Amino acid sequence: MFDPATSSLVVLGGDSLAVVPAHGGDPRTIPLPGDTTALSGDAAGVALLSTRGGYFRVDVRTGQVAKLGIRGHDGTDFTAIARRTDGKLVLGTADGAVDTLGSDTTVAAEVKIFARVDAIATQGNTAVVLDRGQTSVTTIDPSGGHAEHALRAGEGATTLTVDPVGRALVADTRGGSLLVFGVDPLILRQSYPVRDAPYGLAGTRTLAWVSLTAANVVVGYDLATGIPVEKVRYPTVRQPDVLAFDEAANTLYVVSGSGDGVQVIDNAGRPR
Q1: pTM, rounded to two decimals
Q2: What domains, with CATH codes, occur in the chain?
Q3: Residue 156 and residue 245: Cα distance in Å, rounded?
Q4: What pLDDT score does 272 carry?
Q5: What tens digit of pLDDT does each residue of 187-246 get?
Q6: Among 96, 196, 198, which Cα is nearest to 154's?
Q7: For residue 240, which of 199, 268, 204 has the smallest C-alpha distance?
Q8: b vs e for 121-133, b when ≥16 Cβ sit within 10 Å of the residue's Cβ?
């Protein structure tokens, strides 16, 4: 993720975080006291990471790490985490539950209808859930106790993100398409063919970024019309699995899934 409060890229590496300053300076590594499965944040200098039994809260500035255990869930494998606008956290589990917290360590509401929760993103206080096994997208209402709507997401959806203007973006890697959903209510607004194994996603106010892992390319699509329109295309590092975007600087970060590091594309939205 890109953390605007510290102007840094934060990359999850399992048992550590890498913090890469946007404006120069040496990258830092923050060790974590255990394996983690997913990364989110509050856009104010705190990284949140799901783990077995709860989650870690990491101060990106100081590197201080605190583990918060969820009461009654010591043995639960949490696989996804996201923060709502009201500050409440939503966590997903390997056995198919979505838990909305009422405090830092207690579950206030649960929905258990999924094969597995692979990713969670939030729009306002609505959680959007990706289940790869069922290749579905589901919205959870602000109470946290009810699934509002559910839709099939292509032939093999793999990744999910949201953008600042209220859309949920899904990469259907098996089906070779970019899916664009409205969230309130959940509706599939656009489905666009994208070749070469779309996977990594980043949503901005102007473009939807999609990485093509079979071609080592990233493409920026304009979604303003009824069909995505390609605006820019860049070659990338090998296996461009993860994308993040700095809106203030118009900088795209591409993280390699094969050990080739992080690629920084300045002024990414401008055609070249």
Answers
A1: 0.96
A2: 1-152 (2.130.10.10), 163-272 (2.40.128.630)
A3: 25
A4: 63
A5: 999 999 999 999 999 999 999 999 999 999 999 999 998 899 999 999 999 999 999 999
A6: 198
A7: 199
A8: bbbebbbbbbbbe
